[in-house]
Design a protein that fits this description.
The chain is mainly alpha-helical. The chain has 9 helices and 5 strands. Strand 1 (54-55) and strand 2 form a beta hairpin.
C-alpha cells in the first residue's frame, strides 16, 4: 500500500467531511490531482509526489494507488462508504491527526489544503469541471483514450499557464487555494467562450 496515497486520500476526505460533504472516488482523485499540480506551481517535481496518474476515456484522472488506498481505508474503518460516497470516520480523524504530525507528509499538506479549499470558494461541480479542462485531460476526452498524465509535454503546457499566474500572484503564496481558484476559473471561462483549454494563458 502506498503511504502517500493513503494519506492524501484520508486528508481530502477529512477536509471535505468538515464541510459536511461526501465524495466519491472520482472526486477524491480530482482533488488530489489538483494538489499535485499545485505542487508543480511551487516547483515541486512530479516524481516527488509518490505515485502517478492516467487520464481515462471519461477524462477523470485515475491512480491505481489511490484506488487501492480507498479500498484499504474503507476496509479498515477509517473512511465510511455510503453507496459510493465517502466521509471520514471518528477513528479515521484520529489517525489522520497522527499522520499529520509525521514529517514525511508535511510537504504535501499545503497543496492538499489548497486543492480542497477550492471547494469552499467555488461549487464542487466547478472544481471537477475545471480540473477536467486541464490540457492533457481535455485532450484525452477529445481523443477518447487513456494516457499518462503530467509527462514532459503535459507539464510544459501547465507551466505556461502557471508562469502567468506566478507573475501576478507570486510563487510563494500564503494559501494555494488562491492559484487553484484563479486557474480553475480561467479554464472554465475559456471553455464558456469556446476556447481551447490549452490556450489563452501563454
Amino acid at each position: 500500500m502506498n503511504p502517500d496515497a493513503s494519506f492524501d486520500h484520508l486528508f481530502v476526505v477529512g477536509e471535505l467531511s468538515k464541510a459536511g460533504q461526501s465524495l466519491n472516488l472520482s472526486e477524491v482523485q480530482i482533488f488530489i490531482y489538483l494538489a499535485c499540480m499545485l505542487g508543480l506551481y511551487n516547483g515541486r517535481p512530479v516524481a516527488k509526489w509518490g505515485y502517478s496518474f492516467v487520464a481515462t476515456p471519461d477524462s477523470s484522472p485515475f491512480s491505481i494507488e489511490l484506488f487501492e488506498a480507498s479500498d484499504s481505508l474503507v476496509t479498515s474503518g477509517l473512511v465510511t462508504n455510503d453507496d459510493g460516497f465517502m466521509m471520514i470516520s471518528e477513528r479515521g480523524q484520529k489517525e489522520l491527526d497522527r499522520w499529520e504530525r509525521l514529517t514525511r507528509f508535511t510537504p504535501r499538506v499545503p497543496y492538499l489544503r489548497g486543492a480542497t479549499g477550492a471547494a469552499v470558494a467555488m461549487p464542487l461541480s466547478f472544481v471537477k469541471e475545471g480540473v477536467e479542462l486541464e490540457p492533457q485531460l481535455h485532450n484525452a476526452r477529445a481523443l477518447k483514450h487513456s494516457r499518462h498524465l503530467l509527462d514532459d509535454a503535459g507539464i510544459s503546457q501547465i507551466y505556461r499557464h502557471f508562469q502567468v499566474l506566478e507573475s501576478s500572484l507570486g510563487k510563494n503564496v500564503p494559501d494555494y487555494m488562491i492559484p487553484a481558484v484563479v486557474w480553475l476559473s480561467f479554464l472554465l471561462e475559456q471553455d464558456d467562450q469556446g476556447g481551447a483549454a490549452g490556450g489563452g494563458l501563454r
